[in-house]
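quick one, 94 residues, struct below
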Amino acid sequence: MGPDTLGPLIPIIALCIPIVAIWTKHRTKIAEMQINATAELSAEKAAQYAQHTRDLEERVRVLERIVTDKGFDTATQIEALRRDSASLEDRRAQ
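---
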């Protein structure tokens, strides 16, 4: 490589450096946006799982109370729970 070929390459290289810097900054911004979107989705799913777990725990508590409490009529309690469950589903649908 002589000075005749090296001379025109210097401006080309000088122009490529900012282009690469801009492209790298853009890729970094896109990666951050993807990470934020993934974090938001994960947080939303975690909240849904937590609510579902609370609902299941409440059902288990009710079932434990029915099984261990011998002073009440079991069939009446089951029917009451069905009504309560239906009202809970109606509230969730809203």
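The mean pLDDT is 85.
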